[in-house]
Design goal:
Length: 332
């Protein structure tokens, strides 16, 4: 099939997989299980560190010095990258987007504490010039004799896919131990890499589980295409022995776009209520940008009947706790 490439161990694994008994009962649908990737670490916590394990192996192999990456000002991915760099004695440079709501809080505060170099651009300039900003900073370090690795948004590319391909193997062995055959595996989709890796993994495992990405920003068409693009890139780069046409034919990406609300990082009342509900009923903390929206989507889809007749669904908790604090006013 596909042998996992070497990685650096950065994440706490395997993360727990457990039932949410009270929420499952309350909604009267399938049993809802949760894969606790919010527990992959402290400052490295969440889904991004699983991707970074493979990226950082290549960075060390190639003797690179600087990690340059980008994201929203409250990005979990940028925070994890900043701390991974510090942990491994590398430099990090974060290209951050100010959508108008910038605060020295949440993940940004941690980025500062980590000592990462940070450049903040307003939203308009960021979107118009992102590629050239990456080039500019890469050149800046090259002129100082330092070699950079450019990591795209959310670490979602051919290398990033491997993190959640590996997670699908971890989950599959947990399913076997528990005697579970989930009908659906649900995650939040922000840059698509988590969904891509899981979709690839469960497809290669010939599992009957359907992976659902719940979009928190772009359209379902965008994410369906992104999953195919990331997996195609992955196949070319890491698994040339696989038949690309067959692989893509079996992939079955599925994204729901009904839960985005007003836009990326914009929470709405149902999301806030879902966060409070899961915290108080199950002692699990979701976040307003990703997992709160995705879990609200899961609960809504139960009510709409999507999972009728399905015994078990698994929600992948992709982290994000630090990103919650700038939303404090919405919880009052
Ligand atoms: C980045 C992120 C996601 C989305 O994962 P992608 O691989 O970017 O789609 C979901 N949840 C949290 C908490 C994140 O930080």
């Amino acid at each position: 099939m596909f042998e996992l490439p070497p990685k650096i161990d950065l994440a706490q694994k395997s993360t727990p997989l457990h039932l949410l008994p009270r929420i499952s009962q309350k909604y009267g649908g399938p049993r809802i299980w949760i894969k606790r990737d919010d527990l992959t670490g402290s400052v490295l916590s969440g889904n991004k560190v699983r991707k970074l394990e493979y990226v950082l192996h290549e960075v060390q192999r190639d003797n690179l010095d600087v990690l340059i990456t980008c994201g929203g000002w409250n990005s979990n991915h940028c925070r994890a990258t900043a701390f991974v760099a510090a942990q491994l004695g590398l430099k990090a440079h974060l290209i951050l987007r100010d959508d108008g709501g910038f605060k020295s809080d949440g993940n940004y505060l941690l980025d500062k504490i980590s000592g990462a170099a940070i450049s903040v651009y307003d939203e308009k300039r960021y979107f118009a010039e992102l590629n050239s900003l990456f080039e500019t900073w890469q050149k800046h370090y090259a002129e100082r004799g330092l070699k950079s690795r450019l990591i795209p948004t959310g670490g979602s590319d051919a290398t990033g896919v491997i993190g959640y391909y590996a997670a699908s193997l971890e989950m599959s062995s947990q399913f076997e131990t528990l005697g579970l055959e989930p009908g659906y595996i649900v995650c939040a989709s922000g840059s698509g890499g988590t969904q891509a890796g899981l979709t690839l993994g469960f497809s290669l495992l010939q599992s009957s589980a359907q992976v659902i990405g719940i979009a928190v920003c772009d359209s379902s068409r965008y994410f369906d295409n992104k999953v195919v693009a990331d997996v195609s890139q992955w196949q070319k780069q890491y698994a040339p022995q696989l038949d690309a046409a067959q692989l893509l034919k079996n992939l079955r990406p599925l994204t729901l776009e009904a839960y985005i609300g007003p836009g990326y990082a914009k929470a709405y009342p149902e999301v806030i209520r879902t966060i409070q509900e899961l915290a108080s009923e199950e002692g699990v903390l979701l976040d307003p940008t990703y997992t709160g929206k995705a879990f609200w989507g899961l609960l809504s889809e139960i009510k709409l009947g999507r999972f009728d007749g399905v015994e078990d669904v698994v929600f992948v908790h992709t982290g994000g706790s630090f990103g919650l604090f700038p939303y404090r006013d919405m919880f009052l």
